[in-house]
Design goal:
CATH topology of one domain in chain B: Thiol Ester Dehydrase, Chain A
Oligomer: heterodimer
Radius of gyration of chain A: 16 Å
CATH superfamily of one domain in chain B: Hotdog Thioesterase
Number of strands of chain A: 9
Helix content of chain A: 25-40%
Distance between the termini of chain A: 27 Å
CATH architecture of chain A: Alpha-Beta Barrel
Number of domains of chain A: 1
Order of helices and strands of chain A: EHEHEEHHEHEHEEHEH
Number of strands of chain B: 7
Strand content of chain B: 35-45%
Shape of chain B: elongated
CATH topology of chain A: TIM Barrel
Distance between the termini of chain B: 26 Å
Largest sheet of chain A: 7 strands, mixed
Chain lengths: 216, 148
């Protein structure tokens, strides 16, 4: 199963993409982008209210929800968000303590994955140059669709050095960016809780579809 | 969530009005001139009783740029980060447009270049019948001083 683990809809203030727009695009590009599902990781919030089940049924694409939060080690994707996590952390706080987030999210039934680690200021690599590495990180985002030249390459060394699992996500804020990077799992993923289990199990890999979209 | 927003702005100021103004009655000539300046050819924008092109509402900017609680010098370290416009009923000759500006949102985020504060001013325009002509969210990105 291939999931785009990092996407933003218009629920994020810097995105204009609608969820239905993403699904229509994926349907149109299904020969090039074999995406089975996406995770909406809205900035600094968890969208508990939106119900996309009717769109899942209509388009045959799974839609899960997570969050992208901001910490003292850069941005972090949180999967398996639940009430206990929302009570523990103020997701709107741009200065969350990364170590507490990694540790406590894990304890509360989720998983926290640092994203675009190669990016200046908001990526793990730069922070690791000046601070102690975080404990308990299981995986990082090796492939981020919004990265600039050299940023994803920087993460390869990080993954190798620390033995992190490697996921991929488009970080799409526009419809036409959906699915350009994603994560291939060795099994089906049924819901958000199962996504956490799958990320803890390992065996997945980051996949890059950008070359397919370039055309001949 | 904290009661104090970036720049030390009190949460209670969100939604507070910082400017309002009322236009002179719009004339058919105003609309013709505006439509012509855009190169519009749609017949509905011309003639004796035209409707205004949707962006005509941008003429009504009010008197103040931003809420007085936002430090003026912060605007020297930022830029216009775009606007969202929701159009309502068309403007017609004779309409008087009332504009009300409120502080809608202040939030912080981090990106490649460091910390950024976004200030959103909401401009709501109504006509003399109380109908919404347009709602514009003007977004400004400002740098906190430490990152300047």
């Amino acid at each position: 199963m291939i999931l785009d683990l990092h996407t933003h809809s218009k629920k994020s203030e810097d995105s204009r993409a609608t969820v239905v727009g993403y699904l229509q695009w994926l349907l149109k590009k299904k020969d090039l982008l074999p995406i089975d599902g996406l995770v909406l990781t809205e900035h600094r919030q968890f969208d508990a209210d939106s119900d996309y089940r009717h769109l899942e049924d209509e388009y045959g694409i799974r839609i899960f929800k997570g969050s992208e939060v901001e910490t003292d080690y850069g941005h972090v994707l949180v999967y398996g968000v639940n009430d206990a996590m929302l009570a523990r952390f103020d997701f709107s706080n741009v200065r969350l303590n990364a170590q507490e987030l990694i540790t406590d999210v894990e304890e509360l039934g989720g998983i926290a994955v640092p994203c675009h680690p190669g990016r200046p200021t908001v990526g793990l690599c730069e922070h690791y140059e000046n601070k102690a590495p975080l404990e308990g990180v299981r995986a990082v985002e090796l492939l981020n669709g919004g990265s600039r030249k050299g940023e994803n390459e920087r993460v390869e060394a990080l993954v190798k050095k620390y033995g992190y699992g490697a996921v991929g996500g488009s970080d799409s804020h526009l419809v036409s960016f959906i699915g350009i990077c994603a994560t291939e799992f060795p099994r089906e993923v049924s819901d958000e809780e199962d996504l956490v289990r799958a990320l803890r199990e390992g065996g997945y890999r980051a996949v890059d579809f950008r070359d397919r979209l370039k055309g001949p | 969530m904290s009661d104090t927003l970036p720049f030390g702005i009190d949460q209670s100021l969100i939604g507070s009005e910082f400017d309002s103004s009322t236009s002179e009655p719009v004339t058919a000539e105003d609309i013709h001139e505006y439509a012509a300046s855009l190169g519009e050819t749609y017949a509905g924008y011309f003639g004796a009783n035209p409707i205004a092109p949707p962006t005509f509402c941008m003429k009504f900017r009010g008197n103040r740029f931003s809420h007085p609680s936002i430090p003026a010098d912060a605007f020297r370290r930022g830029f216009d980060a775009g606007k969202d416009i929701h159009f309502g009923v068309p403007i017609r000759p004779g309409d008087v447009v009332h504009t009300s500006n409120t502080l809608h949102e202040v939030y912080e985020k981090t990106g490649r270049s460091g910390s950024m504060v976004f200030v959103v001013s909401r401009q709501r325009m109504t006509n003399q019948r109380g109908e919404t002509v347009a709602t514009i969210d003007n977004r400004f990105m400002l740098r906190p001083k430490a990152d300047a």
